[in-house]
Amino acid sequence: MDFNFTEEQDMVRDSLTRLVRENYEWETRQKAITSESGWQPTIWAQLAELGLLGMPFAEEVGGFGGSAVDAMIVMEEFGKGLVVEPFVPTVVCAGGFLKHAGTAAQKEEHIGGIVDGSQIFAFAYAEPRGRYDYADLETSAKKDGSGYILNGHKAVVIGAPWATHLIVTARTSGERRDREGISIFVIDKNAEGVVTRDYATVDGRRASEVYFENAAIPAEALIGEEGNGLPLIELVTDEAIAAQCAEACGAMKVAHAMTVEYSRQRKQFGVPIGSFQVLQHRMVDMFTEYEQAVSMTYLATLKLDAPEAERKLAVSAAKVRIGQAAHHIGQEAIQIHGGNGMTDEYAIGHYFKRLTIFDNEFGNVDHHMKRHIALANS
Amino acid sequence: MNLEFSPEELAFRDEVRTFIKENYPSHVSPDGLRDDLDPEDMVAWHKILGEKGWSTPAWPVEYGGTGWTPTQRYIWSEENARVNAIMPLPFGVSMVGPVIYTFGNDAQKEQHLPGIRSGDVWWCQGYSEPGAGSDLASLKTTAVRDGDHYVINGQKTWTTLAQHADWGFFLCRTDPDAAKPQEGISFILVDMKSPGIEVRPIKLIDGGYEVNETWLTDVRVPVENLVGQENMGWTYAKFLLAHERSGIAGVARSKRGVEQLRDIAKSEQLDGVPLMSDFDFARKVSQLEIDLSALEITELRTLAGEQAGKGPGPESSVLKIKGTEIQQRLTELTLEAVGHYGTPFYPSVSDAGSNEYPVGPSYAEHSAASYFNMRKTSIYGGSNEIQRNIITKMILGL
User: What does A300-365 look like in DSSP terms, one character per residue?
Assistant: First the structure.
């Protein structure tokens, strides 16, 4: 057992802390997320320059050779600055699929592009009626000659407006909610028959509804085994959850620190409100929640390589606990900031919004509680 | 970073497991309330560990510590919890021992540390008073210098298991005129056989006799029993509380408790199926288990930090709050799980003549008493509200 970071990991953290502090100032971020494109391609280029976009890939193929712990470090720093750029969809999700199951040709075609920043991915898995069940798919991929014809509607595909490529889950056989019959494809977003409707999200990112209208895709687009995609989806989304748990920790840390600082500055009844015990204890409870969240992020991250059941149990436990902590800390931070917390001008509201939406992605508290119960009692 | 045990750690676990299996006194009943045990049984494992050199793992090696890493100490707790072992009482090992080896003189170390290690000397804690609970510094028990003695007068309360104690460590006021109440307090070791000490048991809501009132009337104590400097006792008292808190999370024991809770809920029925299959109940158990995982990693992180050179700090207040909340929720859920058979009252064996055979399943017998008893955990060792005050000051900096 070891809770220490390596020297190299400390360096990664330091360089990201600098990047977020010096090139991701609050005003710049606010301007970017309300601009037409909604993001900062220059930041993406800097991440490429630092080699971080190659996080999951081996050094031989131009990657960073990073572990889940490295991804955790990156995401925690992103969370502190509410970085909106699509690291999880591109590097963790698409990177994960390519690394675990990509063919030599797929790796050849995409890894270089991810590493140098020219290929950006979004992960189209959610559907309007599927909620958090990755197997509840109405999108279909029907065999057509050697390739497939894709039809369906993917919901709230995070980062899709910025993406050059999509990872898509679709049913190649079986019925809605069957565990079998699910396949994964990597496709060009500009392919014929792919229609998107882009919009902003409440937490400062961009997303799309993605429609497939008889989109013809080649056989080479299939990642992994046809019809047996679910275990791979579960693995990669568990990796994404661990990364986003780290992001939430970063956001919670800042939200808590901002709140404590605000309570020091803000005076009512002639004294700083931080001198009131009723608020002090609430800020202590926020701190305790944050500490438990950090612990659960470690647990989820360090169990990603464990046998499947053990991995899922740890990741669900983390998603439950951090989902709860994120709501608690976000809500308390707004309350202690009072009316100012309600304004768009104060940063705290934006942290609250990101922490709220965190729970919505890859399964909320109730969803993961159910998965935990099923696994713990099997 | 990793959570795996190394081959050396696995070998250590096997060694510990084998030692416990071969040496744990199996007649020491692991179930039930501690004060139902014979006093000899309460220290039986402590004495065996003392001979092995394992009774004070967290102490510095020069004073008899084992030099174990945080991971080894974690393994040690886990393995003891597996058999529900009655561990050494904290009053000597985790409380006064560290004060003596940190602030005591050589004569005190020589006199007292061996008895703490061996389990031959039973210690009790004289901190709280009827008028000094959370506001401990307002304590009124006085120690007045008379030649080469202190003369102690006053009343202490909540002195746990003082009915069996050989020695006690007492906070006494030695300077009533100090500018601040914290500045006039001294830390004094008292032989509990001294004339003028009277220990009266207090019956608690669980029916047991775990704590006492301790009256001190003109108790004469040699001045060499003063630890450290006169009027500096508050510093030592706070140091002791931080040490007390670090073991207070009780993670390994709670993990074992969750396993037992699951077993109970598999035996109990609801709507004709095991209670454990009921979603509402299963959700509470999973929430408890998830919170316990978070606490477990938090404790390991804290231990790792301690090994990196930091002593037990204000982080231990987080462990105290979360650990006691979990212990309380565990006993509450266990009482809930047993249903009807949580209701019958079983007198403590300390009440003469009680040898009633339990009605209902044996796992239900102490469920209510344990739940009642565990309400103490958020009150003792500095109440959880006091812990929040500590975190406010030491971590939030408010």
Answer: HHHTTTS-HHHHHHHHHHHHHHHHHHHHHHHHHHHHHHGGGGGSSSSTHHHHHHHHHHHTTTTS-H
Q: Does A195 touch chain B (CB under 8 A)?
A: no
Chain B closest-CA separation from residue A378 CA (Å): 10
Q: Are strands A271-272 and A267-268 parallel, antiparallel or unpaired?
A: antiparallel
Which has the minimum average pLDDT: A283-292, B150-159, B294-303? B294-303
pLDDT band at B249 (very low <50, low <70, confident <90, very high): confident
Centre a 10 Å sphere on the Cβ of residue A149 and count the other Cβ atoms it contains: 17
Tell which residue, B165, B150, B300, B164, has the closest CA to residue B230: B150
Burial of residue B305 (number of CB atoms within 10 Å: 0-12, 13-18, 19+): middle
**Among B residues 309-348, those touching chain A with beta carbons less than 8 Å apart:** 315, 318, 321-322
State how far residue A66 is from chain B, nearest Cα, in angstroms: 13
Q: Nearest CA of chain B to the CA of A245: how many Å?
A: 13
Choose among A2, A280, A285: nearest Cβ to B398: A280
Which amino acid is it at B270?
Answer: L
CB-nearest partner of A321 from B294, B300, B388: B294
Question: Which residue of chain B comes nearest to A365, CA vs CA?
Answer: B287
Nearest by CB to B1, from A274, A302, A376: name it. Answer: A302
B-chain residues near A281 (CB < 8 A): 385, 388, 392
User: Are the Cβ atoms of A284 and B300 closer than 8 angstroms?
Assistant: no
The H helix count followed by the E strand count for chain B is: 13, 10
- Three-class DSSP category at B17: helix
C-alpha dihedral (A341, A346, A351, A353), degrees to nearest 10: 70
Torsion of CA A72, A75, A79, A82, to 10 degrees: 180
Structure tokens at A329: 């800390």
Query: What's the distance, CA B386 to chain centroid?
Result: 17
Task: Say how many CA atoms lie within 13 Å of B164 toward its Cβ.
Answer: 20
CB contact under 8 A, B301 and A3: yes
Give the per-residue pLDDT at A222: 98
- Does any CB of chain A come closer than 8 Å to the CB of residue B383? no
d(CA B94, CA B105): 18
- Joined together, the tokens standing for residue A343 give 């304004």
Burial (CB count within 10 angstroms: exposed 0-12, middle 13-18, buried 19+), residue A158: buried
ipTM value = 0.95
Phi, psi of B172 (to 5 degrees): -130, 150
One-letter identity of residue B114: P
Q: Is B300 on the interface with A (CB under 8 A)?
A: yes
* B261-274 pLDDT, tens digit each: 999 999 999 999 99
Chain B environment of A1 (Cβ under 8 Å):
2-5, 9, 70-71, 74, 300
Lookup result for tokens 């508050």? B234
Enter the pTM of the model. Answer: 0.95
- How far is the C-alpha of A21 from the C-alpha of B7, rounded, in Å? 42
Q: Is the pLDDT of residue B245 over 80?
A: no
> pLDDT class for B38, splitting at 50, 70, 90?
confident
| Contact residues on chain A for B277, CB-CB shorter than 8 A | 377
**Catalytic site includes residue B356:** no
Q: Under a CB-based contact definition with an 8 Å cutoff, are residues A295 and B298 in contact?
A: yes
CB–CB of B9/B72 below 8 Å?
yes
Per-residue pLDDT at B243: 75
d(CA B200, CA B169): 17
- Alpha helices in B164-314, H assignment, sequence order: 233-246, 251-267, 279-307
Q: Is A317 on the interface with B (CB under 8 A)?
A: yes
Residues of B in contact with A275 (CB under 8 A): 398
- Sequence-ordered strand ranges (E) for chain A: 121-124, 140-144, 147-158, 165-171, 182-188, 194-200, 206-217, 222-223, 267-268, 271-272
Residue B8, both tokens: 């050396």
- How far apart CA A45 and CA A38 sit, in angstroms, is 16
